[in-house]
Amino acid sequence: MAKLLIIDDERGIRNTLREILTDEGHDVEVAENGKTGLEMAQKKAYDLIFSDIKMPEMDGMELLSHLKANGEGTNGESSDCPVVMISGHGDIETAVQAIKTGAYDFIEKPIDLNRLLVTTKNALEQKSLKQETTQLRRRVQAQGGQQMVGESPAIARVRDIIDKVAPTEARVMITGPNGSGKEVVARLLHAGSSRASQPMVEVNCAAIPGELIESELFGHMKGSFTGAVKDRAGKFEQADGGTLFLDEIGDMSLAAQTKVLRALQESEITRVGSDKAIKVDVRVIAATNKDLEAEIRQGNFREDLYHRLNVIPIQVPALDDRKEDIPLLVSYFAEQICSEQRIAVKAFDEAAIRALQARSWTGNIRQLRNVVERLIILAGPTITAEDVNLYA
């Protein structure tokens, strides 16, 4: 069901269009002027907007300029939403100006029913094609820049779960030691989902002070606390329609856990300093390096939130548990780092690889990448076991 917005100061036109397009199976909302319409478009993502040109306070051309400006809209969707301009004073010059400003089409009053329906169908199909293209591009980028490198049985199991779970709406709990690649798993889950064209918003729960975590997640209203100089949308609102990745959720305060649980139960949040509930549609993926069951026993984590989040558990193995992947990882990182440094790709001889495999990798993939970068910068064209022993 497509979400449509009709902006027109004539009640009869608004109601007629709403009735026609609702009968076609669309979810239709209306606004009586350009200012109200812009506020609605900034708070909610629409699939198609119809706007009159001659309106009080803010005319249709000014509204169109705002909608097509980069960054308009809380959801980041307003600039991509097709806008059809409607006018009872249509002329070629106005139509050309509207198209140049970014309008999808221009319809004159009185509105021809067939023209309205054909324009609606074509505009929605165009938006759908754009979304599919964006989704494909993000998947290609994910495969190129966010690869899960390795052929070990342990990593093959993780890859198999990702392939099965990504297209669903199921919540996922990713566990594993620091540096093992939990963020890569989260990005691959998002890239393989139907939400890939929508934002993936990341929150490092361990990096945000306890007194600010609620504001970060749920937003706040101006004046709700010292430093709140304006209204601010939180991460849940920013991720509306997409994915919210709660990294290191084991470090979240119990007070914030309670509010996250409510948000998951009711699909709505309330900004700090407000009593107004805001509906949100997010898929939550969480990650932690902690044993949450032990944290529950110690009273540090809510058991009900754990079960809400732990629908599909994914355990990312430590690098020490898949050392057979080190040759592939070294090759991948070497090519990546040499490209970043704009130097010829350096080779690691077999003895160097064996020396790397003999080590214990407490920092996991992140530590290995750092060591590979250090060796590429400090060693010669071919990296040897001696180089590993000297610089790693």
Commentary on this structure:
The chain has 392 residues and is of the alpha/beta class. The protein folds into three domains: 130 residues, Rossmann fold; 172 residues, P-loop containing nucleotide triphosphate hydrolases (Rossmann fold, 3-Layer(aba) Sandwich); 72 residues, Helicase, Ruva Protein, domain 3 (Orthogonal Bundle), CATH 1.10.8.60. The protein contains 16 helices and 14 strands. The strands form four sheets. The protein has a five-stranded parallel β-sheet, with helices on both faces. A five-stranded parallel β-sheet has the order 7-8-11-6-12. It has a two-stranded antiparallel ribbon with strand order 9-10. It is elongated, with a radius of gyration of 26 Å.
Radius of gyration using CA atoms only: 26 Å
The low-confidence parts are: 70-78, 137-145
Q: Percent helix among the residues?
A: 40-55%
The DSSP helix count reads 16
| Domains (count) | 3
Per the CATH scheme, the topology name of the largest domain is Rossmann fold
Report how far apart the termini are. 56 Å
Structural class: alpha/beta
What is the CATH homologous superfamily assignment of the largest domain?
P-loop containing nucleotide triphosphate hydrolases
Please write the string of helix (H) and strand (E) elements: EHEHEHEHEHHEHEHHEHEEEHHEHEHHEH
The first-level CATH class name of the largest domain: Alpha Beta
Order of strands across the biggest sheet? 2-1-3-4-5
Strand content: 5-15%
Largest beta sheet, briefly? 5 strands, parallel
Mean pLDDT: 89
The CATH architecture classification of the largest domain is 3-Layer(aba) Sandwich
> Tally of extended strands?
14
Shape: elongated
